[in-house]
Structures are given as C-alpha cells and as structure tokens.
Amino acid sequence: MSNKPRTVFIVSDGTGITAETFSHSILAQFETNFKQIRLPFVNTIDKAHQALSEINQNATKFGEKPIVFTTLVNPEINELINSSQAMVLDMFHTFVAPLEIELQLKSTHAMGRFHQNIETESYKNRIEAINFSLAHDDGQSHKNLEEADVILVGVSRSGKTPTCLYLAMQYGIKSANYPLIPDDFERGELPSELHKYFPKLFGLTIEAQRLSQIRNERRPGSKYAALENCRYEINEAQAMMDRHSIPWLSSTHKSIEEIATTILQIIKSDKSIY
Amino acid sequence: MSNKPRTVFIVSDGTGITAETFSHSILAQFETNFKQIRLPFVNTIDKAHQALSEINQNATKFGEKPIVFTTLVNPEINELINSSQAMVLDMFHTFVAPLEIELQLKSTHAMGRFHQNIETESYKNRIEAINFSLAHDDGQSHKNLEEADVILVGVSRSGKTPTCLYLAMQYGIKSANYPLIPDDFERGELPSELHKYFPKLFGLTIEAQRLSQIRNERRPGSKYAALENCRYEINEAQAMMDRHSIPWLSSTHKSIEEIATTILQIIKSDKSIY
Q1: Rounded to an integer, what distance in angstroms lies between the CA atom of residue A171 and that of residue A167?
Q2: A173 touches chain B (CB under 8 A)
Q3: Which of 55-74 (A) contact B at CB < 8 A?
Q4: What is the assigned CATH class of domain A118-267?
Q5: Tens of pLDDT, residues B217-261
Q6: Does domain A6-112 have CATH number 3.40.50?
Q7: What is the ipTM of this complex?
Q8: For chain B: N or C, fewer Cβ within 10 A?
Q9: Domain pair B6-112 / B116-267, same fold
C-alpha cells in the first residue's frame, strides 16, 4: 500500500449518505489508502463555489487529482463541480441521462432525497416504526403487538434488537422482539403472548461459541455466559422454533443488513414505490 | 402519470441496500410509476441465471424493458445480468473502470460490502455504538458517559433518540441523550451529570407547534402536550443552551439523516478510511 492517501470528496446537495456508502464499497476494491472529506448540503451556487475551491486547493496541494463522488441534482451546481481539477464520478447524471431516453421522459431535476424527506409517508412510517421497535424491545410491552409486521424471537443476545432497529430505520417495518428464556424452556412452551401471532414470528439463532463470547463481554464468568448454558439455551430455542415451524436463521456470520434483507425477503413482498 | 408501472429490479451480490436507496433517489426524478423487485444475494452463477430468467420473463410479460440497478462485483455474474433484455444500470463497473485508470491499479474484484462485513472494526464499532445508545437513551444511565462521542440534549420528543440510533448505526458514533425537563428549568441549571461533558453536548430544538402535535399523539390533551407548555419548555431549553454556548439546531424540518450529518460536521472531522 502507498503511504500517501488519495483524497476522496463526497459532494452532495443532501446528506451524501448514499454516495458515501456506495463510494466505500467501490473504493474497497482498491488496495491503497484514501482520506475522505464530506461536503454535504451543497445546495446553492455559493456553496458549490466553496466546494470547487476546496477540491482545487487539494489538487494543487497534493499534486494529484482527488476522487470526487457526487450526487447533485441541480445541473448548474453539478457543472461547477464537474469543472474541478479532479476525477469526478457523477453518480446522478450518469444514470439519469440514459433513463430519460429509456423512459421517454424528462427528469424533474427536483431534489431527490425522498426517502429522507420528512413530509413523506415513507419517512413518517420509518419514525413510527423506530418508536414501535423501541417500545417493543425485549418483550417489554404486549400493547399493540398486533400492529407488528414481524416479531423476532430468540435467546438473549442473538441479535434481535439491532435487527429490529435496522428494519425500522431502513424499511419502516414495525418489528417487536421477544426473548426466549430458561423459564420458557423449562415449561417447554413459547411465551403465551405469542401464540396468536404465529404467522409473524421469525427466529434468530447463533452459534454457542459466539454467543458465549458476546455474553461474556457483558457478564464475564456468569452462568448466563457459560458455553454449556449457551449451548443448552440455543438447542432448546431451536427445537421450540422447529416444533412450531417458525422460520429462523443464524446470525453468527451475518450483519444486521444481511439479516434484515433476508427477513424482508421472507415476510414481505415488494411493493409499488411512489 | 401512466397507470402501468415500469418494473425496477435491484440486483446485488449483497443486500442491495445501497443500490436500492440510490435507485429511489434517481427514480424520484421521473413522474411515473415503478414497481420494485429486490434480488439480493446473487452471488453464484446459478443464482445469476435465475435472476436473468426472472428479468427476461418480466420483459416478455410486459413488452418493455425493465430497469435493472446492479451492484455486482464478480465480472462473470455481472456479464450475465448485463446480457438480459433490460436496461441495466451497472453502478459498480461504471465507476470501477475509470478508477482503475486514474489510480493505475487493478481492482481486486473482491466482495465489497466492507461496511457491513461483521469481521471489520467498522462493523463492530457500529454494533457497540447501537448498544451504547440504547443503554444511554433518555438519560437512563450515567455509566461510561465519558465514552460518548456526543451527548444530545433537548426537551422530550425533540428527536434525540432516533438521531442517536442513526449516528450509531450509520457511523458507529457513540451517542447518549439526555432530556431537559421542567425540573431543570425551575432550577435554571443543566442536569449536574452533564457539567463535566460540555464539549460533547449538542442541542436539539423544535418548533412549539410541531412539538405539541407530536406529544398530542402520545398523550392527547395532556398538559405535557399543550402548546403553551411546549412553548415554555422550548424557550427555557434554548436559553439554557445559549447560556452554556451549546451548539444546537432545530429538528422541525430536518430528517434524522440531515440532523446526523450536521452533527457529524460539527463534532467529528473526517478520518482516513481503511
């Protein structure tokens, strides 16, 4: 790896979050170092001039072209940034132009951050879903459980909470989660509150070794964290899920994004978008 | 608007979340209807053939080209999807090819979902930050408050909790939040626990009308939700923040993404990435 990192600018008229996330997955393909500078909210000609000047100064200072990822809807602002002494990767217009031809429609050049626009139904659903998930975390409330799109079950620390929050934040899905605890295993029965919601139940499981490690970070040396106990709880929970034909997956090697996407494929078909 | 929606496929070797988010902001530029179908985890030749066949069947059925957004690192899989009877917008290779030239490096063609890869530091930080934010929501714990990157303060329901969760989930930022309540205003002092953390404090405020509306959804007709009371709390909170020179912003017209991005600009400089 070269020691001198190449500068990467993320320039957007909005938050630039999509451009940033995308740029990371592109840049991860190259075995060299990058230094990132975010320039969000570049939504006026004035701010575009400031951004342009910052990019050009960087080019002069380091004697090489910075890489610039842009999502800029406004053509005038976009043109200014495109005129910089940089390598500009124009995420927006690269795809809008061919789409105009294919769809035989002119694009509106309106700010396109609809997923993040607080006046939309989609945004309101996301916030409502976050509140719902927080109120129904760890089985703490049975109120309005019938409103849940999905109810995650699994042993403590199997990844239910972050998955629920991600489903809410990204997709506006109302998810509750309910821990399966030793009491349930002794009784050999799912918590009675869940019996009327079978079609909404989805299970998470996890390898015993990994669970023990996670629990030991929380409560070192406890019975709760002991490998034997983890193994027992996981076996019982899986048997219980299988008995009730609850679909489940293992979170051991999956990120919350991967778990959420998989659950979404199972519980929810795609919907029309706007 | 035309009544017959055009089909949009999101095809990815990973979750497809970035491609989906990005496609929404692009498609929002066109005043027509779209129907979205997600095809995540297309990471084998077999799955690529299945995806190809689904796309082609759709093209035949509707007699027009579906729009296909792809993020496919593997060139063989990518080529297969590119051969479909669709308009393919290849987010990945469109930008990797010119970058190879500019950087004078070959890309690794390795799966690029590093932000979501559970073995990375970045992913572990995100999960740890989510747990931290949940443990330090609504002032419920002062333990390890010194570990917080930022502590949000503001009146109840000003948007602190979802902002903290977003900062954690997207950026791995440890954020706590602390409500400013009538007791604090009567005493005319910030909660004493916060006094040693001034440099980490950031305030959220909100318009009284909007706050009253949000609180009324929770507790209809309560004093808590009354416009007069909201106005009082907001004025007191803003005065308190100004007195202590705590930077603040209004969440009234901002999404959690916009609030988080703004906070990030203020509290945290950009860091080198991998």
Answers
A1: 5
A2: no
A3: 65, 67, 71, 73
A4: alpha beta
A5: 989 999 999 999 999 999 999 999 999 999 999 999 999 999 999
A6: yes
A7: 0.89
A8: N
A9: yes
